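Exercise 7.
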Amino acid sequence: TNMAAPLPEGLYPVMLTPFTEDGSKVDYECLKHLTNWYLDSGSAGLFPVAQSSEMYELSNDERLECARVVKVASNNRGPVLASGTFGDTIEEQAAFVNKMGEIVDCVVVLVSMIAKKEESDDVWKSRIETLLSLTGNTPLGLYECPAPYHRLLTADMLCWLASTGRFKWIKDTSRNNDIITTKLSALQALGDTTFRWYNGNVTTTLHSLQEGGHGYGGVSANFYPWVHAWLCKNFKSNPDKAVLVQRFLTVAEATVKSLYPASAKVYLAQEYPKFQISEKCRVRDFNFLPEDRMKLHELRMMMEDVCKQIGIEPVSPPDYERNAAGQSAKAKGNGDNSEYPVD
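Solution. The predicted structure, written as tokens, is:
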């Protein structure tokens, strides 16, 4: 990917990390099929090693290997972005950023890992300057990750970061239309820049696209990524339909976020059983009652109703068979949609 050019606009799913049934290993075979599914669904690029990937529960080796598997499986169909600022000091974080930078197109700086909650923006900025000095020309991104705590960048700080030339994009988690408008207006006032702004919050997505945002990258893309991809591509040409799609996304998000990220794995395992993803999460054990599973099934049914109404084609995750070693013998179909009668 040519990182001098701006990142493509559109959907960047924050990818799930599938585990083996006991949670001891990453299921890399399933991760390859997930990668293809997101891309077949219309994603512009991919964000593995994100909070939805349970990144804080992965070892450094697993973080690098997840990124490598996704990068290879993506076959250059879109840029791959992965978090890199893990470590107790800026020096350790920079060293890991450089390792990750050899694998992916862009390494993500986790905003809340750079300074403690009580530390000032000046401290944060000086650490970023140190990080930049230790990471050569590695292209970087930003993610206002809500864990370990939620730190939002000011519009001024965002403009400074964009003007360094080292940062390509941000995954924003302002969750507030007024703040989003302020940030996007400030970035636009900078003039010609390759910096890209993606919304991590689904409720404010249509507003942010209308205000000049460049796409979406949030949790419900692990359920029905083609819906977000459609919205990013068609909000201007189909404004009335875009309002209906946004309404579905907004209301559906409460079900998506209940018992997340397990909800996404349970949804995929339950609704697409031949996909064979384990429901196991490392962040904690989740208890799904029959009612919870019913809600997830009805979410799929409602999503398909909306897709039919709008004319969006759903993309099933690929069926694949595993042999005794747990490797998939063959993937059947590439997101075969034959079961979906879309008028």
